[in-house]
Design goal:
This protein is α+β, with helices and mostly antiparallel strands and about 160 residues long. Helix content is about 15%, strand content about 45%. It contains two helices and twelve strands. Strands 1, 3, 5, 6, 7 and 9 form a six-stranded antiparallel β-sheet that branches. The radius of gyration is 18 Å and the shape is elongated.
Length: about 160
């Protein structure tokens, strides 16, 4: 009897430990095109490799030193969503409004998002300071799988390039 319980516990532990998220870092904006006080929308294809699908609870972006960016940081605002239509690459506010008007995109809150297939993780970003310097280092994904809270840390290099 104890052998069966131990075997089931080992199988359970194995199943929840083998899954992982993969982030396709591909959407970036030229640094001189990233204007202060304007909204930009950046999409990143994300997938889950594992036998059981997780529920994302939260996504947090951290600086290179590990300190998290606040949702409304004094230098930059960052909000995470899921693009349910899979269209977002990089958009400015005008392009975003046009796509919304034509029902071509749909963003939903990320909290409690049940991963069913590959999806577009979308960030709405607004640079608030002319002196802002990118300092991104990590993307932290908090999720739940089979009732257990899990965390995965992925490398994240930011939204702009020189």
């Amino acid at each position: 009897m104890y052998g069966i319980i131990l075997l089931l516990m080992l199988i359970y532990t194995y199943i929840i430990s083998i899954g992982q998220f993969n982030l396709n870092i591909g959407t970036r904006l030229q640094e001189d095109s990233f204007k202060v006080n304007e909204n930009y929308y950046f999409g990143y294809r994300m997938d889950w490799k594992g036998p059981i699908k997780p529920v994302i609870k939260n996504i947090e972006i951290r600086r290179k030193n590990g300190k998290p960016y606040e949702k409304h940081d004094k230098e930059i605002d960052i909000n995470a969503y899921v693009d349910t239509t899979g269209h977002t690459g990089v958009l400015n506010e005008e392009m975003y409004q046009e796509l919304i008007k034509n029902n071509r995109i749909n963003y939903r809150e990320l909290s409690n998002y049940r991963v069913e297939e590959d999806f577009i993780l979308m960030f709405k970003v607004r640079k608030n300071s002319y002196t802002y310097q990118e300092d991104f280092g990590q993307l932290v994904v908090d999720y739940k799988i089979l009732g257990l809270n899990r965390r995965q840390v992925l490398e994240f290099t930011g939204f702009s390039c020189k």
